[in-house]
């Protein structure tokens, strides 16, 4: 019995400082981040884990690269917002992606690590056209950096506007375009979002919500930009009723993960959203008056990922556009337990979707590790 007890002690030793003791939790952000970084460290000799600064659009812009095998296809993630970074969120929702893809996360100008690297932008450069040019430069950089003729682009929310326009203009750069929370006819999306939110508020007999929503009416019924104040009022109550994250009030549950991002220093966390107000004021009215449903043909495969409950960027409007689109191949996949935050709401389904429906396109082209 003594020998058995000793053997068990040896076997259990790696679980803690002593068998039976309760592990002590981290006492600081630094300790927590160190644990997370250790858990997700890429040790494969064929892989790469890096933060790189890239000259794009006349400034320093920052990307993260994660890959277990650089022979795998490159997937570039265009984040939403505008001004909301997603690089510091992927430590918990994209586990496994780097086993099948070389994943490039990009902090756009005036946001996240790019804001820290380059400081606030000249307001004259905060235009949809400048961001579109940045996206194109980034894809060109990635094709050269990883010696790939084609890559995948995944555009989420605002990033889906950049991604769809890039796919229409440069199909020769892409294996496929992946749209998630896809923006198409933005004014129609906004209009339906306001109507849905008002219905929820009336059913809830929420006097404050009804009054604030009425104060911005008529909402998104005329051509041209919507005032920022009106947009934020609509978003406030739409998020409150679960139109952005299904059955959740707002997105604080997701944003909290930024505080534990191993790619982000304390300075990065403090400054992640310092540039967002300027970006919101400069871009949001313009992009929410944009109609990309006029894009009727793509010369590249399309994978469309939509949350069934998405009212933030209407999945109904996106699905209507999808039905009219012509492409070499196209697939629409509904996420039944998601609204606009599919990465956080159904991360497992998102990974299996990418592996089952995107990666085979690259494999067929000979662009994947065995």
Automatic annotation (TrEMBL):
EC number(s) reported in the record: 3.4.11.5
SUPFAM superfamilies: alpha/beta-Hydrolases
Transmembrane segments: none
Molecular-function annotations in GO: aminopeptidase activity
Gene3D superfamilies attached to this UniProt entry: alpha/beta hydrolase (3.40.50.1820)
Superkingdom field: Bacteria
Catalytic class of the enzyme: hydrolase
rRNA-binding listed as a keyword: no
Signal peptide positions (record): 1-20
Record's keyword terms, sorted: Aminopeptidase, Hydrolase, Protease, Signal
Pfam families noted in UniProt: Abhydrolase_1
GO biological process, one term: proteolysis
Residue stretches making up the AB hydrolase-1 domain: 73-342
Family: Belongs to the peptidase S33 family.
Full protein name: Proline iminopeptidase
Organism: uncultured Sphingomonadaceae bacterium
């Amino acid at each position: 019995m003594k020998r058995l007890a000793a053997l068990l002690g040896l076997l259990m030793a790696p679980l803690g400082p002593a068998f039976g003791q309760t592990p002590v939790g981290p006492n600081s952000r630094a300790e927590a981040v160190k644990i997370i970084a250790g858990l997700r460290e890429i040790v494969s000799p064929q892989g790469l884990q890096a933060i790189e600064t890239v000259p794009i659009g006349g400034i320093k812009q920052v990307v993260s690269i994660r890959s277990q095998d650089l022979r795998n296809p490159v997937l570039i993630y265009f984040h939403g917002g505008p001004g909301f970074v997603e690089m510091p969120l992927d430590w918990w929702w994209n586990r496994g992606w780097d086993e099948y893809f070389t994943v490039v996360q990009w902090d756009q100008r005036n946001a996240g690590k790019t804001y820290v690297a380059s400081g606030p932008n000249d307001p004259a450069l905060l235009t949809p056209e400048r961001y579109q040019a940045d996206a194109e430069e980034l894809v060109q950089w990635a094709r050269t950096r990883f010696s790939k003729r084609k890559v995948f682009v995944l555009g989420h929310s605002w990033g889906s506007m950049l991604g769809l326009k890039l796919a229409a203009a440069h199909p020769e750069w892409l294996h496929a375009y992946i749209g998630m929370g896809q923006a198409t006819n933005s004014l129609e999306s906004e209009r339906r979002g306001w109507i849905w939110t008002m219905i929820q508020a009336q059913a809830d007999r929420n006097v404050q919500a009804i009054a604030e929503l009425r104060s911005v009416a008529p909402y998104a019924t005329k051509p041209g930009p919507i005032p920022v104040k009106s947009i934020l009022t609509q978003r406030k109550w739409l998020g409150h009723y679960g139109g952005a994250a299904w059955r959740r009030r707002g997105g604080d549950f997701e944003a909290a993960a930024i505080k534990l991002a191993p790619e982000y220093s304390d300075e990065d966390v403090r400054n992640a959203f310092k540039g967002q107000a300027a970006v919101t004021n400069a871009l949001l009215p313009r992009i929410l008056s944009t109609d990309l449903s006029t894009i009727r043909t793509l010369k590249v495969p399309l994978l469309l990922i939509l949350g069934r409950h998405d009212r933030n960027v209407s999945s109904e409007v996106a699905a209507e556009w999808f039905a009219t689109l012509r492409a070499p191949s196209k697939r629409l996949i509904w996420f039944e337990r998601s609204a606009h935050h599919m990465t956080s709401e159904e991360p497992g389904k998102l990974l299996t979707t990418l592996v089952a429906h995107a990666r085979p396109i690259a494999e067929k082209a000979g662009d994947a590790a065995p």
